[in-house]
Amino acid sequence: MTSLAASEGSAIDILIVGAGPAGLTAALYLARYRRKVRVLHDGRSRALWVPRSRNIPGFPDGIVGADLIARMSDHATRYGAEIFEASVNAIAPRQNEEGFRAHLADGATIDARGLILATGVDTNLARLDSGDHDAAVRNGVLRYCPICDGFEHGHERIAVLGSDLHGAAEAMFLRQYSSDVTLIPKWQVALTDRQRGELEASGVDVLEGRVLRLDATDEAMFVAVEGEAQPRRFDTLYPAFGSTPRGELAAMLAPLTDPNGCIPFSAFSDGLLPGVYAAGDVIEGLDQISVAIGQAAMAATRLHNWLREQDGHVMADQK
Ligand SMILES: Cc1cc2nc3c(=O)[nH]c(=O)nc-3n(C[C@H](O)[C@H](O)[C@H](O)COP(=O)(O)OP(=O)(O)OC[C@H]3O[C@@H](n4cnc5c(N)ncnc54)[C@H](O)[C@@H]3O)c2cc1C
C-alpha cells in the first residue's frame, strides 16, 4: 500500500474528506469514473459505532457498522481509490491556479481539482456515572438514533433524556414502538403547558426531577431522579442531546453553513462552490446511512461531470 507521505505531491483529481458511508460511496463512484481519487479521514466515522444496523436495504439480518465500513473501504480501493488516515486542518482555493489545497495536521499539503466534504457530525454524548459508555451502546441499552433502532425496542421500558422540544419529539416518535416511554429532564423541563399536554395525551410520562445519576449495566440503564428514593430501571435510554456538524472545512471555503454549522441541503446536488460538493450527515437533513450513500452518489456524479465540462468533454447543448 502507498504511504500518504510517498504519494504527497502526486496530482489527484478529487480529494474526499471523510471515510464514512458518504465519503466511501463518493470514492467508489469516482474511482469507477476513472478519476484519481484520494480519501482522507481521522477515524471518527459515526458508522463505526453502529452496533448492528437493521435498516440498510439488502441486509435483513443487519450488519455491524465497522463491518460495513470495512466492506465499503475494500470496495472503493478495489477500483483504485486511495484511503489514508490523516486529519485535515484547513482547505483553501489554490492561489493563481485551479483547484484546492488541503493542509493536514502533520504539515503535509494535498492539491486537488475538486473536493467532496463528507465530514459528518459529532454525536453529543451522555456522561455515565458508572458502566462503560461504548459497551452500553454495543449492548443496545444506550441508544442515540430512534429512527435507526426504535423498532428493536418494541414494548420495552424506554427513557428519553432531555426535556426540550427535541427530546419531546423523540419521546413521541418512540411511542410508535412502546406504550412505556418516559421523558426525563437533564436539568429542568423546558416545555410549555401545551406541549406537556400533548405529550400526556399521547401517553408519554414526563418527569419533573432532574437526573442525578446515570448508570449502565449489560442489561439496563438505571436513572436516579431528584426526589425519588430508588433509581428507575429502563431497558434502553435515548439521550436527546442532538449532534454537532463537522462543518469547519466547509465554512473555511464559503460562509454557507447555517447557524448550527450544517451545510445547506443542496450541497450534494448543486455544490457549495464550483468544484466543491458535500454529502452525508454534515448536510442538513435526515442523518442516515442510506441518505449519505444516495447524496454521495449524486455529489460524485455531479463533480465528475463538472470536471468533464471544465475539460471540454461535454457537448455544448448538455451544459
Ligand atoms: C450509535 C449510532 C447508531 C446508528 N445506527 C444507524 C443505523 O442503524 N442506520 C442508519 O442508517 N444510520 C445509523 N446511524 C447514523 C449513521 O452512522 C450516519 O448517518 C452515517 O455514519 C453518516 O455517514 P457520513 O459519511 O455522512 O458521516 P460519518 O460516517 O460520521 O463519517 C464522517 C467522516 O469524516 C471524517 N472527518 C471529519 N472531519 C475530518 C477532518 N477534518 N479530517 C479528516 N477526516 C475528517 C471522519 O473521520 C469520518 O471518516 C447511527 C449513528 C449512531 C451514532
Any key phrases for this structure?
319 residues; alpha/beta; FAD/NAD(P)-binding domain; 2 domains; 7-stranded mixed β-sheet; 4-stranded parallel β-sheet; 9 helices; 16 strands; 23% strand; binds flavin-adenine dinucleotide
SSE blueprint and pairings:
Layout lengths: L3 H4 L4 E6 L3 H12 L4 E5 L23 H14 L3 E4 L2 E6 L6 E5 L4 E9 L3 E3 L9 H7 L6 H4 L8 E4 L3 H10 L6 E4 L8 H9 L2 E3 L4 E6 L4 E5 L6 E3 L1 E4 L3 E3 L2 H6 L22 E3 L10 H22 L9
Parallel strand pairs: 1-2, 1-6, 2-3, 6-16, 8-9, 8-14, 9-10
Antiparallel strand pairs: 4-5, 5-6, 7-15, 11-12, 12-13
Flavin-adenine dinucleotide (FAD) binds next to helix 2, strand 2, helix 5 and helix 9.
State the secondary-structure class.
Answer: alpha/beta
Low-confidence stretches: none
Counting H and I runs of at least 4 residues, what is the number of helices?
Answer: 9
Mean pLDDT score:
93
Instruction: List how many beta strands DSSP finds.
Output: 16
Q: What general form does the structure show?
A: elongated
Largest sheet entry = 7 strands, mixed
CATH superfamily of the largest domain: FAD/NAD(P)-binding domain
At a glance:
The chain is of the alpha/beta class. Helix content is 28%, strand content 23%. A hairpin with a 4-residue loop joins strand 11 and strand 12.
Task: Describe what this molecule looks like in 3D.
The chain is α/β, with parallel strands linked by helices and 319 residues long. It folds into two domains: 4-122 and 243-318, FAD/NAD(P)-binding domain, CATH 3.50.50.60; 125-239, FAD/NAD(P)-binding domain. The chain is 28% helix and 23% strand. It is built from nine helices and 16 strands. Strands 1, 2, 3, 4, 5, 6 and 16 form a seven-stranded mixed sheet that branches. Strand 2 (37-41), helix 3 and strand 3 (82-85) form a beta-alpha-beta unit. Helix 2 (21-32) packs parallel to helix 3 and helix 2 (21-32) packs parallel to helix 9. It is elongated. 38% of the residues are buried. The model has no long low-confidence stretch (mean pLDDT 93). The structure holds flavin-adenine dinucleotide. The site of flavin-adenine dinucleotide has 39 residues, from helix 2, strand 2, helix 5 and helix 9.
